[in-house]
Amino acid sequence: MSAFKTYFKQATRPFRSDLMTAGLSAAAVSVAAVCLLGVSGWFLAGAAMAGAVGGAAMQMFNYLLPSAAIRFLAIARTLLRYVERYSGHAAALRALAVVRPHLFSRIVAADPHHTLKLSRGETSARFVQDITVLENRLVAQSAPASAIGGIMAAILLCLFLSPWAAVIFIIGLGVTLGAGMWLGQTTARKDQAQREQAIMGGLKQRFFEILPLTPDIAAYDLSERLLADMAAREHDLAVAKSSQISLDGLIQSVSLVAMGVTLAVLFLTHRGHDLPLLALAALSVTVGFESSAPLLKAFAQRRVFDDAETRVADLYDQAMPRTTDTHAPLTDCLLTVKGQSFRLNRDTRLLISGASGAGKTRLIETLMGLRPVGADMGQFDRNLFALSPQDATPLNGTIRDNLKMAFSAEALKTRSKAELDVMMFAALSDAQLTSKALDLWIGDGGVTLSGGEKKRLGIARALLRDAPILILDEPTEGLDAETESRLIEALETRLNAEPRGLILISHKPAPRRLCRDVLNMD
Q: So where does this one cross the membrane (predicted)?
């Protein structure tokens, strides 16, 4: 059993009582539905025969008890259906509300050089679609109980007509279930489900790739070309979904044909029997076949469920937690690169220089644990560093949402909103971004901000992070000389006041005055 399957089994265990309640309620709903329609058929046929015979027979016909039974079964079916839906869906929703955060936290805690390689579209498809499929699988666990309840009730009511009526129903239903299972487990269905999932993942990935390129699409007039590509992908998805729907329709058609043949045989073999009992059996058979529909659907979706679980398990296994111990004390942090050694502490003022492509950004990504550590470099605790990357991608939300990411969960709980706001405004001021309000919505990926504003928002976020060493990758790139000068002065004042170490990458000469040591990557 895979690690995810073991975890999923444990995560859903607290909700088994609710799922069991849903199953028992589903079985009772099917029993009530079969009995309701069967008794109704018997009652209507009996009342019609009594009326046809004459007034005396009509007077002797007891319609009170059947009427009461019909009302009781109708009310019971409604109440039991509510219990079934509430228990099943509540259990599934609550279980997946535990699974989703756990999976996300596992991805976050995993080695970034593994997780950053994951396709965003495919990961999104697994994280959203496949988890939803697993949710539906929990809800569908009541299908067998529902089918068994309806089938057993139909068999018992058929026995009132004759044992052969029950045998005919069992044979017809057996053919339906056998055909449904075979069609639901065909290789073609599996291939269609996998193809649909692959197309959906590719479509999402393409969307994620295109979304940040909106200005380029307008500048190079690429909209028609990209829309044609998206339309082709949508067409492929529609074809895949249509194939799935067609196969589902085929399974339902087989069930309807089998039910029709079963009813025909029932009427032909029991033409001389009591008409009310024949109506009772015929309607019971009809609802018995309908009771098997959830089971046929579960058969048809079993491969979909299994494939979804396999894909989530694969994502779960890829997001393995880090096994290396990176909690070295700050005083023991010695950075050694190409024979050059530097002590990393709150007094560090290190400039990493070198030509483009020399590996400067790769080095700081290694320090942050985003890449595997080389043989000549020690292990470092990621919490030692606050990073402002070269290309800082803002969170979809407000300025406040982006800055709150820098605070620990404990800080968000213990500090008041006013205190946090003061700290945020101070960081924005040092980053020369005072023109922006905290509650300004910046759009998906900071689409409403300029490139320089995104950069300075990333710097403000790094300044708010409680870490002893600040890492700035090209912090003044794209800034005018005046803004650059003010930013450098504010950074120098803040670094000396805290105090705080600095690792700087910059091709521009002005920021280099913040550093006294140089690590040459050439």
A: 21-43, 63-80, 138-157, 163-184, 250-269
Instruction: Note the maximum CA span of the chain.
Output: 114
Q: Which of 327, 334, 336 is nearest to 375 (CA)?
A: 336
Q: How far apart are CA 472 and CA 500, in angstroms?
A: 13
- Residue 390 and residue 458: Cα distance in Å, rounded? 9
Whether residue 474 contacts residue 452, with contact meaning beta carbons closer than 8 Å, is answered with: no
Q: Which DSSP string do the residues of 389-422 spell out, in sequence order? A: -SS----SEEHHHHHHTTS-HHHHHHS-HHHHHH
Q: Are 140 and 277 in contact (CB under 8 A)?
A: no
Q: Tell me the C-alpha distance between 514 and 496, whole Å.
A: 10
Residue 430 has pLDDT above 90, yes or no: yes
Q: What would the two tokens of residue 104 be? A: 């996300």
Res. 339 pLDDT band, cuts 50 70 90:
confident
Q: Assign a CATH topology to domain 3-318.
A: ABC transporter transmembrane region fold (1.20.1560)
Q: What number of other Cβ atoms are within 10 A of residue 18's Cβ?
A: 19
Helix (H, G, I), strand (E, B) or coil at 314: helix
- Side chain identity, residue 394: P
Domain range annotation of the chain: 3-318, 330-520
Q: What tokens were used for 456?
A: 């300075």
Return the amino acid letter for 130.
D
What pairs with residue 370 in β-bridges? none
CB 442 within 8 A of CB 402: yes
Instruction: Look up the CATH superfamily of 330-520.
Output: P-loop containing nucleotide triphosphate hydrolases (3.40.50.300)
Q: Where are the alpha helices (DSSP H) in 319-390?
A: 360-367
CA–centroid distance for 211 within its chain:
21
- What are the tokens at 402? 């982006």
Query: Confidence band (pLDDT; 50, 70, 90) for 328?
Result: very low
| Sign of the dihedral through C-alpha 177, 179, 181, 183 | negative
The contacts of residue 91 (CB under 8 Å, 6+ apart) are: 12, 15, 18, 19, 22, 138
At 396 the pLDDT is: 85
Q: Each residue of 481-500: pLDDT tens digit?
A: 999 999 999 999 999 998 89
Q: pLDDT band at 114, cuts 50/70/90? A: low
What's the pTM value of the predicted model, to 2 decimals? Answer: 0.69
Q: 204-213 pLDDT, tens per residue?
A: 777 777 776 7
> In CATH terms, are 3-318 and 330-520 the same topology?
no
* CA 381 to mean position of chain CA atoms: 31
User: What mean pLDDT, rounded, does the chain reach?
Assistant: 83
| Cβ 361 vs Cβ 416: under 8 Å | no
- Token duo for residue 47: 């009342």
